[in-house]
């Protein structure tokens, strides 16, 4: 026989396991907060922008073909910016204690579609070092591209600046705790229904009907004789009635 679960039974299960749900959700949220605030290292981000554009003369202020060429070169420039040719010089210039691969992973190069502006972003545990690396990468690339491709069309549009009170880009404790709260609650509700599904014990007449598929004709109630005797002693009417019954 196919079993159906009513909405009332779902709410009863949640109500029955409410303490478990609250504990698991609170533990997940608290753990996420502790890890975000006290375990994970704050990471700061700093960015600089370069412009891919030839210097214009007075006779020629705008050349569409030249702009299109610059746009096509941007993808190539994005690769060169993160190449060992540039990063090795950045490590040497700043005296960094990291490999080229580690520095490469901390740098991201992005450019908007049909835009000649390239954004170089660097993430590091030190906000000052992140700004220094971003500026150094832009300057080294500007020098090296002249020798690599024999072109001089890179200009630094804006340098990375260290603000008065820099804030980390990650971790984000509030977001992490919100995600942990939702995931913890979903996990707790799932665990509550799983425990209810695995619970095969018979607790009442309805459980017997579900297990055997037969109607319950009667039930035997457990009577505490000691409690019953005390109730009779404290009830004079019941004792008098009992005595009349025995006398007759």
TrEMBL record:
Note the InterPro entries from the entry.
Answer: Bact_polysacc_biosynth/exp (IPR050445), GNVR (IPR032807), LPS_length_determ_N (IPR003856)
Polysaccharide chain length determinant N-terminal domain mapped to chain residues: 3-94
Q: Which residues cross the membrane?
A: 20-40, 174-195
Q: What is its main location?
A: membrane
* Keyword set, alphabetical order: Cell membrane, Membrane, Transmembrane, Transmembrane helix
Name all Tyrosine-protein kinase G-rich domain ranges.
139-194
The topology of this chain with respect to the membrane is: Multi-pass membrane protein
The entry's localization annotation reads: Cell membrane
Which Pfam family, giving just one, matches this sequence?
Answer: GNVR
Disordered: annotated segments: 228-248
The family note in this entry says: Belongs to the CpsC/CapA family.
Identify this protein by name.
YveK family protein
């Amino acid at each position: 026989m196919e079993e159906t679960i009513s909405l009332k039974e779902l709410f009863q299960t949640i109500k029955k396991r409410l303490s478990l749900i609250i504990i698991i959700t609170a533990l997940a949220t608290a753990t996420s907060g502790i890890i975000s605030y006290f375990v994970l290292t704050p990471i700061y981000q700093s960015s600089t922008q370069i412009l891919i554009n030839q210097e214009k003369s007075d006779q020629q202020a705008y050349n569409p073909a030249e702009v299109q060429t610059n746009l096509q070169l941007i993808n190539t420039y994005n690769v060169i910016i993160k190449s060992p040719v540039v990063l090795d010089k950045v490590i040497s210039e700043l005296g960094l204690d990291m490999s080229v691969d580690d520095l490469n992973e901390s740098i991201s190069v992005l450019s908007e579609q049909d835009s000649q502006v390239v954004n170089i972003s660097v993430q590091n545990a030190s906000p000052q070092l992140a700004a220094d690396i971003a500026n150094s990468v832009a300057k080294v690339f500007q020098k090296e591209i002249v020798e690599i491709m024999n072109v001089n069309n890179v200009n630094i549009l804006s340098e990375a600046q260290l603000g008065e009170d820099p804030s980390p880009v990650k971790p984000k404790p509030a977001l992490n705790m919100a995600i942990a709260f939702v995931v913890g609650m979903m996990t707790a509700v799932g665990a509550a229904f799983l425990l209810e599904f695995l619970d095969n014990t018979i607790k009442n007449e309805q459980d017997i009907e579900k297990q055997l598929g037969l109607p319950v004709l009667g039930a035997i109630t457990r009577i505490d004789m000691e409690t019953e005797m005390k109730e009779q002693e404290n009830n004079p009417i019941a004792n008098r009635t009992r005595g009349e019954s025995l006398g007759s």
